[in-house]
TrEMBL record:
Pfam family, one: BPD_transp_2
InterPro entries registered for this protein in UniProt: ABC_transp_permease, LivM-like
Coiled-coil stretches: none
Protein name: Branched-chain amino acid ABC transporter permease
Principal subcellular localization: membrane
Alphabetical keyword list: Cell membrane, Membrane, Transmembrane, Transmembrane helix
Length: 328
């Protein structure tokens, strides 16, 4: 394994995220999926919303260095907020996304006040505690969330008043892709901004950035809140597409899954969220179809191989491969 020098790590950590051939390849894959994967559009829509969820974690952990095992708190909050909004206020989907993002951002803002004052294992446990508390709250408030039975009975209006959600998943897939495109463009701009670059500096050396006059706590608080908002959008999308919100959206397994996605795809590159979510969801679906009992073993073997031979994830492996080809 090639060891990175400190200068290489700094260059990688503060490199600007530009649009590359990989962006074009991902866009082409989405177009081809829509036209030639008509029987898999529902699965593809699930992949897209999980990419958004993984992007939210990458923003917090990959760029800000915020350790978390409770990111499902924001996914589930966004999902329940969007579903309750559709049930009691309006079934219009775009405003539902904004409500899901706003409520999740509020949870991130409030919980971040305590979480971001800690580090390491304590921070991990606090994020897990927040998600667990929200899970128990949703379970207790059965009159609002319907508990284990899941929140159902709400309708989602056609997108822009024209595109109905169909059983084939065409509208859901295109709708999710458009939302992903908007979020990805915004995050690309954010991580290249002063906020994103200083957040990476905080991740690398918090003391040095504080000595340079950067408001470390406020910067991380902002990043964590934005990350929560993006996760809330993913949860709201899930509620709108699936027409049901269950307690599983707040479970530890949801948080663990998105951590595995980033481990597969790679942290701190944005592309890692795409590659990791695609590998995780598609591989899980195919493995479960072949062996519904032992499908997790397949995922475990793939994760071990990636951690062993591509510790920076698939995206990091692709970057290193490109560098080797250019230098040869």
């Amino acid at each position: 394994m090639t060891q990175q020098t400190p200068s290489n790590r700094v260059a990688q950590g503060f490199g600007r995220q530009r649009y590359t051939w990989l962006d074009a390849a991902l866009l082409a894959a989405a177009v081809l999926t829509f036209f030639f994967g008509e029987y898999y559009l529902a699965l593809a829509a699930m992949v897209v919303l999980m990419i958004i969820f993984a992007l939210s974690l990458d923003l917090a952990q990959g760029y800000g260095g915020i350790e978390t095992l409770g990111h499902a708190a924001f996914f589930g909050t966004g999902a329940y907020a969007a579903a309750l909004y559709a049930l009691h206020v309006s079934s219009e989907p775009i405003s539902g996304l904004l409500v899901g993002a706003a409520v999740a951002a509020l949870v991130g803002l409030l919980s971040g006040f305590a979480i971001l004052r800690t580090h390491g294992l304590t921070q991990l446990m606090l994020t897990l505690a927040v998600a667990t508390l929200l899970y128990e709250l949703a379970n207790v408030m059965k009159s609002v969330t319907n508990g284990d039975d899941g929140l159902t009975g709400y309708d989602i209006s056609p997108v822009l008043g024209m595109f109905n959600f169909d059983i084939y998943g065409k509208t859901a897939f295109v709708y999710s892709c458009v939302v992903l495109l908007v979020i990805y463009a915004l995050l690309k701009r954010l991580v290249n901004s002063a906020i994103g670059l200083t957040a990476q500096g905080i991740r690398e050396n918090r003391v040095r950035m504080r000595m340079l006059g950067v408001p470390v706590e406020r910067r991380l608080w902002l990043l964590y809140t934005l990350s929560a908002a993006v996760a809330g959008v993913a949860g709201a999308l899930s509620a709108q597409i699936n027409r049901i919100v269950g307690l599983d959206t707040l479970m530890f397994m949801m948080s663990a899954n998105v951590v595995v996605m980033l481990a597969l795809g790679g942290l701190g590159r944005l592309y890692g969220a795409f590659l990791g979510a695609i590998i995780f969801v598609v591989l899980s679906d195919r493995a479960a179809a072949v062996d519904p009992t032992n499908w997790l073993a397949v995922l475990g073997v793939v994760l071990i191989l990636v951690v062993r031979y591509a510790p920076q994830g698939v995206s990091g492996w692709l970057v290193n491969l490109g560098r080797k080809r250019r230098s040869s």
